[in-house]
Amino acid sequence: MEPYAPSALVPAILRLVRERDATGASLLALRLGLTDADVDADEAPATESMIDDALDGAAEALSEPHLSLRLAADLPWRRYGAAELAARSASTLREGLGRMAEYAPLVHPALACTLEERDGQALWAQRTPSRPRGASLHAQQYALGYVLTVARRETGQDIAASRAWFAHARPPDVGPVHRFFATRALSFGLEDSGFAFPAAVLDLPMKTGDPRLLATADDLARAALRVQPRAADLEARVAQQVESLLPTGATIDAVAEAMHMSGRTLQRRLEADGVSFSEIVDGVREKLARRWLADPGRSLADVGFGLGFSDLAAFSRAFKRWTGKPPGTWRRS
Fold first, then answer.
1. pLDDT the model gives residue 89
2. What is the DSSP secondary-structure string of 194-225?
3. Contact by Cβ (8 Å): 143, 112
4. What does pTM read for this prediction?
5. Are 14 and 42 within one domain?
6. Higher-confidence residue: 171 or 191?
7. Residues 208 and 278 in one domain
8. Which CATH number is 138's domain given?
9. pLDDT at residue 1 greater than cutoff 60
10. Torsion (CA) 300, 302, 306, 307 in degrees, nearest 10
11. What pLDDT score does 233 carry?
């Protein structure tokens, strides 16, 4: 039920796979419901899930678990999209990253990105507010890799991150992640993903800066944002209500009443969007559990009760299903 939007990323991924594994590329295109003509086109119609599946499938087909980090440098693009054109045309890295944050939905419709400066550090962060459980590992890594690759390429500086953090779980091999971000300060399983670097770097000039082209690119990107089909925000609104009604009142009828509709109507609309109420509750609980367990002042029992679990054992079983670890072990690690 997700809307389709033009994507230059999906066909570029398929062309990259085809260069090394023609059969793998054909199977991946078939899995995505695309034809050979789509693969060779500048853009192809794609949904959020198709973008994630293309990134996941490419890493699997080429047996490279961290392929997404270097995709921005390796992809065979046919032309620049409006978002990247605007970023490349900015005068400074600060302006370029600001454009990337503004136009992030043109790269991946679920992305919401921010650029902040705090205590001498620049912080790039990205979230997927319409998805309580976040985007896939490869989608998160691609988005971060894309931003840092463009920043390094267009400033001519090998920018090193002072730290990087991820919403996805810690992968078995973090060596490629260390090397790409040039830092060993990595964190996993957080609410969002991002990286930090010295704020002074933001003043670096962009080699391709062009004020006249920037004005045109801004017009194109903002026009594309206005007409881009957006997935319904129902899931995000339901998640917000669930969070406010925990621990004891997060039932579908209570959430529906808060949203001025019947429980049956809400259930029907969620089914039309391809999501269940229980999945949303599960995602909200997982997000809050990770956040609250990071607070050493909260006991495990307090966290479990706050999430609406009947006892600590039920909370421990659910948390192990989410992360593969009991809550106490996760907190210590």
1. 94
2. EEEEEGGGGGPBPTT--HHHHHHHHHHHHHHH
3. no
4. 0.69
5. yes
6. 171
7. no
8. 3.90.1520
9. no
10. 20
11. 63
